Amino acid sequence: MSLTADFHCEKNNQEHRTDEITSKKLIIRRGQPFQIALQLHSNDHLIDHNNIVFTVETGPKPSEASGSKVLFKLSSIYPKQWSGQVVSSTGTRLVMTLYSPANAKIGRYSLNVLSPSGHQYTLFSLGEFILLFNPWCPEDEVFLGSEEQRQEYVMNEDGIIYNGESRQIEGRPWFFGQFEEEVVDICLHILDKNLKCLQNPAKDIICRNNPVYISRVVTAMVNCADDKGVLCGKWSQPYSGGEYPWTWNGSVPILQKWYKGRGQAVRYGQCWVFAAVACTVLRCLGIPARVVTNFNSAHDSNGNLILDEQIDESGRPCGGENVWNFHVWLEGWMARNDLLPGYDGWQVLDPTPQEKSEGIYCCGPASVKAIKEGAVEMKYDVPFIFAEVNADIVTWICSRDGRKKKASVKTKHVGQFISTKRCGCNDREDITNEYKFPEGSHRERQIFNEAQMRNNLEVPQEEKLQVEMKGDDSISHGSDIRAQVNITNNSLQSMVCKLQLNAQILQYTGSPMKQIVALCVDEITVQANDVATVPFDIPFSEFGHWLKNHHMIKMIAVATDKRSSENALAVKEISVINPHVVVKVLGKPILHRELNAEISFHNPLSTTLYNCIFTIEGLGLLIGWERIRQREIKPNHSFTINIRFTPTKLGPRKLTVDFDSDKIMDVRGFQNIHVQNVE
Fold it and tell me: Quick check: is 350 catalytic?
């Protein structure tokens, strides 16, 4: 006698919104019924559905005590427990509906049936299935009430990640690919390889019903700082032995490489790569997630809400802490039953290894509402993230004799234009007000004043000598910098000043990468209550070949009164805007029908670009990626290529192109496509 099961994978997966992953194995969401059929291959026996017992088991050592093994009979559906009921029975074929509770542990399950045989039971193994979180189920802790948001934050495989700097925000497309067939197995493998599971598997399995626990595990495992995590971070040259972080366009190749490499960390990632990979894992497991960028992000390592920036008298940074042009994390949507009421919803999660939390490199989940209210006593890691969006920047001028002068205090610079992709479209959504009360409101003033009292900050008084730098906030790639320094004398006596100007290319983390100019004007006379203007130009030829994908130039001017030794500084940051790749899709996108696209790029420089590479990708449009190499593109010339591809998935898709060369890197373009089934 044998007993087999038909899991109706195609029908169940479609109803559970997992059919994009596969229709070959059963993948369901908790808190939602699913239907299976049993077939008895025997002429001498019948299925006694009143007496058979089902078991569902998960984890390495399933037990009823831990809740990782559950036994139940077919009777009625009980929403708060594993249960089932008969749909139809012919004696040798039994169709039934099974139900998992909305707080069931997620993961890989085995389904068995115990059939009575005399005074004993015979165990039949029916097969395996995968159980995920269910944001469509009101009783699930990850329930999200808006269908539009569920489509965006769970189902959408394409996204946009914002970077650049606050005055020149750029969006880069990203392929999350959470429904690629191999990804769900990789995500479950990530859970199995986390430190807590390796140290105590039974205890880890007990917690796998909790999205707070799962999301915390994911943020720890996406980096490899203290475990066999997915990504190795690196923020400076050389990137030998791995991929340049800016070359990644999607999560799937990273996850596949880690999985096939048996836990060997993939090299290399930076903040947006960490966040995007974690977003893929959470969406795959069923936790709504979105990638968020904080512009002018503070890294407050000592928790005092102050970043000290130190500048020497020549205008060069000489220590202190940096403000990142941008920092990328993600948010997961979930209930917070471990906190006081009112802190459910979006929670910050940051897999970039910056500071340890409870002994490991992970961060969050931290309630966005708690961050906004300054509720720093709330777990997890609210104080650190509160500082990332609220810290004050104090700039000091450090003299050769060891004296330090407080030159400026910026209280509104940090935490600007906090951005994510808008739900349902490709626009940027500014969510700063979700993290901070509006500037000038009563509550914002209250939090600000409390922070000032706590940190005893004093804003410098107006000085007799002041410096201001004027010029464009951004320039096109290939353009010269033209600016001027205004030196103001607010005293009743004339001044003779020394002006020193320093310009550096910054990494996006705020760290200086290359000094490109250092100028000194030894004597500038500034009359009483007057302003002296010093114009200056920096030719592109002096800094262009250092830019690569670093698009920020920081200029610092320090003026010193030779009589009194009083000094003052001004800081100006200039964005360098990359050109764009233009992508045009020719024709109507139809499933499984060949389509043509035109890709063009214009070289804006007065020099030839060599070793030009176009990398073309599109989830559901191309298999893998296509690379087209061009030996050179001459100065001020355009280059056009045509490609053919065949869409394999319906719905909204993105065709993206990345351009790299010896002088310009990480130039991007994309075209949104909506693939239809028929014309």
Answer: yes
